[in-house]
Design a protein that fits this description.
Blueprint lengths: L3 E2 L2 E2 H4 L2 H18 L4 H4 L7 H14 L5 H6 L4 H5 L6 H15 L6 H17 L6
Antiparallel strand pairs: 1-2
């Protein structure tokens, strides 16, 4: 899924590969250091390097850049890949808050950031597999 923004993709607006990698690394660093995200941190392995890479590869294509995840693994099957984890509104909101926090440091304009947060929320909400 490509999330366009006017005549530029979010991938381009974030600064391409380097910008998306920075966003992902900042996201996981923030998740690891901020206790507000302990719930979603617990869903990850101790060594989060593979998680970092997979989110980077996924976001690269989803944001309008190279489809790295699909090239490596095929269709993302995002919801199916997350079914083993108990994801409700709390986990969705932790993920979104963590991502919104780190987006504050990104190259995105406030308008582009609001648009991207909205698109990410739709995807994060779709990942829920429990009611609470």
């Amino acid at each position: 899924m490509v999330v366009p923004h006017v005549d530029h993709s979010y991938y381009e607006l974030l600064g391409g590969e380097a910008g998306v990698r920075t966003l992902v690394d900042d996201f996981y660093d923030h998740m690891q250091l901020d206790e507000r995200f302990a719930g979603i941190r617990a869903m990850h392995p101790q060594d989060m390097s593979t998680s970092r890479d997979k989110l980077f590869w996924f976001l690269s294509g989803w944001l309008g850049g190279p489809p790295l995840f699909e090239e490596k693994f095929g269709h993302p099957r995002l919801r199916a890949r997350h079914l083993p984890f108990s994801i409700g509104a709390s986990e969705r909101d932790q993920w979104m808050t963590c991502m919104a926090d780190v987006m504050e440091k990104s190259a995105l304009s406030p308008e582009a950031r609001t648009g991207l947060i909205g698109a990410l929320f739709k995807t994060a909400d779709w990942m829920r597999n429990k009611d609470v």
